[in-house]
Write a structure and sequence with these properties.
Layout lengths: L2 H5 L17 E10 L12 H15 L3 E2 L3 E7 L5 H9 L5 H4 L5 E5 L4 E5 L5 E8 L3 H16 L6 E2 L3 E2 L11 E8 L1 H5 L3 H10 L2 E4 L12 E6 L7 H29 L1 H17 L5 H16 L8 H10 L2 H8 L5 H29 L1
Antiparallel strand pairs: 1-6, 1-9, 2-3, 3-4, 4-5, 5-6, 7-8, 9-11, 10-11
Keywords: Allosteric enzyme, ATP-binding, Kinase, Nucleotide-binding, Transferase
GO biological process, one term: phosphocreatine biosynthetic process
Organism: Bacillus sonorensis L12
Amino acid sequence: MSLQHFIQDALSNWMRQEGPESDIVLSSRIRLARNLEKVRFPTLFSNEEASAIIALFEEQFTGYEVPGLGKFELVKMEQVQPLEKRVLVEKHLISPHLTEASFGACLLSENEEVSIMLNEEDHVRIQCLFPGFQLTEALKAANQVDDWIEERVDYAFSEQRGYLTSCPTNVGTGLRASVMMHLPALVLTRQINRIIPAINQLGLVVRGIYGEGSEALGNIFQISNQITLGKSEHDIVEDLNSVVAQLIEQERSARRALYQTSQIELEDRVYRSYGVLSNCRMIESKETARCLSDVRLGIDLGIIKGLSRNILNELMILTQPGFLQQYSGGVLRANERDIRRAALIRERLKLENNGNRQEDETI
């Protein structure tokens, strides 16, 4: 494997699969924060200590296989070009914070479900991504990887406080559980404005598509836990499962109500967005995300037929600035990206429509 293996395709293997409740829940993620015993945290460690951690993981884990997850490849941030880093962030394989780390690295599994970030905010951050609503399954995979690592290294752990981390908010289990949800109906009916404060009061947090500090582009929200101390991993996941299940029902109810009370207006919005994507010559990221959200809602409600959700998943990634520039072979100005983005969307939708027509002709 090489870096190109991870950046050449817009969709990771897990993104191509249909998970439970995948019309609303795009993905489930478990992240475990860990630090090595007797080594200073990344906020204070030396360059020599940082390099030693990477060398340790390169020796102990690169090329080794975890059952069901495949082999792992080490990617050192110092050897990755800025555009390539951006692509890895856009695919959710690494965090924006890791791209800025002077001695950062990442172990990536072949199927891209698991990412082990090194020398980010903590020495080790294990991330497992599953399609749809599968938090429990993602936790099992994360614990499997965690045990695999702990067989070879000693973690910083306190009997009283649990796993020790750079940020006090992660002390305890070191667990961050999150789901990525597409909630267009709750946004259109403005119910989201009262739902978010209610979620925050439950000890959960609502963020944008790329986590802390990012926007909820395309009506996509990330829901995650805030509390890691004083609760077991099972309880944290179960609490989030309960809230997500309620959100799914509320979104479905809002979709039914919208379709029943404003069918023409909703269909008009969906088809206008589809028309923009199919015919635009320039389009910005925000408008792209909004239109893709509308079209995906139209697919889920049966308004638009013959178009796959996976095409929209692919376009959500392909139209990000990093991917556009990576495929273009260099840095593009903003207006150049808008032109390339529009051309890519038109071509991708044309291919999909041609494929559907050919299938109809053979039936």
